[in-house]
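hey
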């Protein structure tokens, strides 16, 4: 009896219980990234997400307990910015402002691996980087330095960046300065 009433109520209200709704569009354009089951893929994905100006995909490269550590000279120069720890929330705010197609017209990130160490469930990389940006802001268009990346594997076997330490290698601005000025 109740079944008949339920069917009758659907028919009378013209509600289709099997109706599928139109999917919502994802936040921004998504990139075709490599699987994070290999540590070096996460570094490749970092490069692709910056060059593809995709903050959503970039944040997937970072762990929930991500930290950025600027070069000590940048910490001193931008003390008001780096006095508080640079965590995932601050990195996400930076990524949304920085990796914006309305702000940046093009970006090129060149990485050269200097060192790699597999520590089991932790992986360590050192990369020299050159970052070139075309933009209309009052920021340098050329940055270089060395990034020290520590990645950890989670329980599902996926790698993510837990620590990004920046090192100044010349008088050229670094990505630490970029974060501070953005």
């Amino acid at each position: 009896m109740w079944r008949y009433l339920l069917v009758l109520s659907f028919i009378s209200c013209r509600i289709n219980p099997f109706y599928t709704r139109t999917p919502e569009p994802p936040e921004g354009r998504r990139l075709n990234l490599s699987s994070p089951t290999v540590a070096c893929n996460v570094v490749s994905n970092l490069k692709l997400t910056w060059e593809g100006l995709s903050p959503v995909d970039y944040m997937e490269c970072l762990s929930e307990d991500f930290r950025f550590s600027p070069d000590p000279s940048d910490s001193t120069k931008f003390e008001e910015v780096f006095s508080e720890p640079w965590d995932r929330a601050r990195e996400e705010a930076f990524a949304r402002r920085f990796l914006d197609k309305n702000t940046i017209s093009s970006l090129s990130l060149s990485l050269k691996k200097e060192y790699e160490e597999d520590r089991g469930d932790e992986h360590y990389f050192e990369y020299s980087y050159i970052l070139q940006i075309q933009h209309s802001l009052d920021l340098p268009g050329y940055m270089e330095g060395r990034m020290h990346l520590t990645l950890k594997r989670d329980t599902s076997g996926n790698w993510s960046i837990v620590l990004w330490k920046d090192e100044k290698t010349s008088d050229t601005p670094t990505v630490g300065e970029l974060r501070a000025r953005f």
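The mean pLDDT is 88. The CA atoms of residues 121 and 155 lie 10 Å apart.
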